Amino acid sequence: MADSYSGASTEADTTGAEGFLDDETLKILGASISSFFALGVVLLVLYILATQVSFTLLQTIIPRFLEALALVLGIVVVSSVLSVTSGIFVGLARVSNTAITKGISAAYVQFFRGTPLLFQIFVVYFGIPVLWPGTFPIQGWELPTAIIALTLNHAAYVGEAVRGGIGAVPDGQMEAARSLGMGYVQSMREVVIPQAWRNALAAVGNDQIILVKDTSLLTVIAIPELMQQFRLVNSATFDPWTPLVLVAIAYLSITIPMGRLVEYLEHRADWGGDSR
Amino acid sequence: MSHLLEFDEVDKYFGDTHVLKQVSLDVDETEVCVVIGPSGSGKSTLLRCANRLEEIQGGEIRLDGVPLSDPDADINRLRQQIGMVFQSFNLFPHKTALENVTLAPLKVRGIDEDMANARGEELLEQVGLGAQMNSYPNQLSGGQQQRVAIARALAMDPKVMLFDEVTSALDPELVGEVLEVMRTLADDGMTMMVVTHEMGFAREVGDRIVLMADGSVVETGAPEQFFENPETERGKKFLSKLL
Ligand SMILES: Nc1ncnc2c1ncn2[C@@H]1O[C@H](COP(=O)(O)OP(=O)(O)OP(=O)(O)O)[C@@H](O)[C@H]1O
Ligand SMILES: [Mg+2]
């Protein structure tokens, strides 16, 4: 299938650009432009490191950034586990045959996908405690807010990814399982979900990487995460680049391994590959 | 001889389309009943109703005297007794050949793994795939996949096997190996209901030919009689188109 697509597109490219842009020229052109661009970025980064980053300041602020990183990591792990787990149920509810389950899950997704995460954080942080005064601690409500808002928001996206993944499993799979005498739940668990999960993996991984970056919004409720540290350091020293570099390193140190993990999981779910 | 599978004035609608019209048909124990007929005549629908993959709107289908639609009957129990093989194989791509065969016995019957594996290996040997047990479906040819699918259905020890054009998706050179497995099954006394366009197979292996047209059974008969000397106009017309 992939072959036929790439085959068709190369054909279209060569015929469309016949004469002055053949495959070879295009390849060289692409390589030159991207090398040129990469070189520019590397030079800019080196320039910033050499002229803008204060290594003495770096030493004093690294510990607080490490703490912030640990905090973000903690929030990410908990909300990831919760949002993926509940997202799977949202996805299952979306494809269920029961009108109520279907309707409620659809409304859930509409709301949490249709309003900004920042708004949802405010609802949980400012809105919920006044509904039942005294029930929620004034101090320390930030972290529960973070977990609740991130989980509710990303469960909607994971749910949509899972729904798409289930939709991409051919009907014949469910029929084959049912015809062997397996029940609906059993067939879902043993046959449909493992395949749906593989189909959904890339989209779920994408969403979870966005979740990592969404923790930056938590700065507005004064959680001492990475952007908060940036603002504190910057307002005290007026040095933007030293903390900015640390922020970048900290986020990438979470998101890059996460991308790798998704690739690994996709590879593991290859089931014999295309090795025929 | 007793009727194993009985269709009793079965009516099936898709929306307003009347797809099965008062179909009555009995399949006896150890009988190979071959269903033929033009495209759209309702052959697949008939098989799918026999497994309750489709619900019927009128009449009754009975397995061993038990109505499939009996509210007290456990549909999952009934389906275990009816093996189904599909045109598109529908193997589970995330399971090896052996795992495909053992999944239902393990999960539905709850038998222990050693027993399931032993039986699974035996079945795969039986369909000539002893060497491919640990291959994933996409590492197998179409003919091999379809033979795994047959072994998978047999693993639940069904009383009757339903085959819906199981060779139609295969390259011509792979058709023979699948028909061979079906022939052996028939020889071993399996009760089978087979929808096929393979007239050679129908004639040779079938005990009875059922011709469907427009949602009705228009003629049934022994293979020699049907192919040599069809009784109905529809039968004559259908056969003349084959030549
Ligand atoms: N899910 C469905 N929804 C609506 N109509 C359907 C559905 N499945 C089948 N039909 C219709 O029912 C009729 C019988 O279809 P069926 O697939 O049983 O025919 P068939 O004899 O198996 O044909 P073929 O030889 O092409 O496989 C056809 O008119 C078809 O269009
Ligand atoms: Mg059909």
Automatic annotation (TrEMBL), chain A:
It holds the Pfam family BPD_transp_1. It is found in: Cell membrane. Keywords: Amino-acid transport, Cell membrane, Membrane, Transmembrane, Transmembrane helix, Transport. GO terms for cellular component: ATP-binding cassette (ABC) transporter complex. The keyword Transferase does not apply. It comes from the Archaea. Gene3D superfamilies: MetI-like. InterPro entries: AA_ABC_transptr_permease_3TM (IPR010065), ArtM/GltK/GlnP/TcyL/YhdX-like (IPR043429), MetI-like (IPR000515), MetI-like_sf (IPR035906). Residues 69-262 form the ABC transmembrane type-1 domain. GO terms for biological process: amino acid transport. GO terms for molecular function: transmembrane transporter activity. The chain crosses the membrane at residues 36-62, 68-93, 114-132, 241-262. It is a multi-pass membrane protein. Belongs to the binding-protein-dependent transport system permease family. HisMQ subfamily. This is Amino acid ABC transporter membrane protein, PAAT family. The lineage of its organism: Archaea, Methanobacteriati, Methanobacteriota, Stenosarchaea group, Halobacteria.
Automatic annotation (TrEMBL), chain B:
Residues 5-239 form the ABC transporter domain. It is a peripheral membrane protein. PROSITE patterns: ABC_TRANSPORTER_1 (PS00211), ABC_TRANSPORTER_2 (PS50893). It is found in: Cell membrane. The keyword Metal-binding does not apply. InterPro entries: AAA+_ATPase, ABC_ATPase_HisP-typ, ABC_transporter-like_ATP-bd, ABC_transporter-like_CS, MetN_ABC_transporter-like, P-loop_NTPase. CDD domains: ABC_HisP_GlnQ. Keywords: Amino-acid transport, ATP-binding, Cell membrane, Membrane, Nucleotide-binding, Transport. GO terms for molecular function: ABC-type amino acid transporter activity; ATP binding; ATP hydrolysis activity. It comes from the Archaea. One of its GO terms (cellular component) is plasma membrane. Coiled coil: none annotated. Its main location: membrane. Belongs to the ABC transporter superfamily. PANTHER family: AMINO ACID IMPORT ATP-BINDING PROTEIN (PTHR43166), GLUTAMATE_ASPARTATE IMPORT ATP-BINDING PROTEIN GLTL (PTHR43166:SF9). This is Amino acid ABC transporter ATP-binding protein, PAAT family. It comes from Halogeometricum limi.
